[in-house]
Specification:
This protein is an all-alpha fold and about 230 residues long. The chain is built from 10 helices and no strands.
């Protein structure tokens, strides 16, 4: 269940990103809402959903003895605990954090400037939502398979393979942009799928599986250090 829940939390960023962009364009183009009021309108629609989902999260059952045995108990670390944890595993964590940071930069560029990069004049306002929905379903399907991986080492090796494959695909498509002559929709789909596979692998299952290999409690501190 940990892998499934982590995957759902992670891919929600992909789905919500496309829906927010499409809803924003629809609000401005079809509903004639001013660009400065558009975020407030989206927030008004999202707030009831946020409250409801927060309530549902509080209803999740506590981990059982078997859960703790398979994934280790999680405790929250304070500032000193996070510093001590980072120092102990600094070499490997530094490499992971650098990779995670670079993917985060790429994601921010895509999310913040995509509506300026693509010409949406001849496209539907809901294009972003459709593409990100397909990307979400594909990533969910891939991540769901890791629920069957009992070995954390084996899972980590396959997860790192996903990260490398996503990065290589993005690199190839970017450097051969003119040669490939891809349609904007195709380019957007490949870039979104490759970027989010690599980014969400770090943000969800990878660090969770990495926690389980550490010999002590306090594994939740790693993701705090990364963020």
């Amino acid at each position: 269940m940990t892998d499934i829940l982590a995957s759902l939390f992670g891919v929600s960023m992909v789905f919500s990103s496309g829906v927010a962009k499409s809803f924003g364009l629809f609000a401005m183009n079809e509903m004639q809402i001013d660009q400065f009021w558009m975020p407030a309108v989206i927030g008004g629609f999202a707030l009831p959903l946020l409250v409801f989902m927060g309530y549902m999260l509080k209803r999740l059952p506590q981990p059982t003895a078997e859960d703790i045995a398979l994934r280790n108990e999680r405790v929250v670390l304070d500032g000193k605990g996070r510093v001590a944890l980072f120092r102990k595993y600094a070499p490997i964590l530094t490499l992971l954090f650098i990779g995670n940071f670079m993917l985060l930069v790429l994601r921010d560029i895509k999310e913040d400037f995509l509506v300026n990069i693509l010409d949406m004049s001849n496209q539907s306002s809901w294009l972003f939502a459709r593409i990100d929905t397909i990307v979400t379903l594909i990533i969910l399907g891939i991540f769901a398979l890791f629920a069957f991986f009992r070995s954390n080492i084996r899972a980590l090796l396959w997860l790192m393979t996903l990260v490398i494959a996503g990065c290589l695909t993005m690199t190839y498509v970017s450097f051969h942009y003119e040669t490939l002559d891809l349609k904007p929709v195709t380019w957007l789909f490949i870039q979104s799928l490759s970027l989010y596979i690599a980014y969400l692998t770090f943000q969800t299952i990878f660090f969770d599986r990495f926690y389980c290999l550490l010999p002590h409690q306090g594994k939740r501190g790693i993701l705090y250090c990364a963020d």
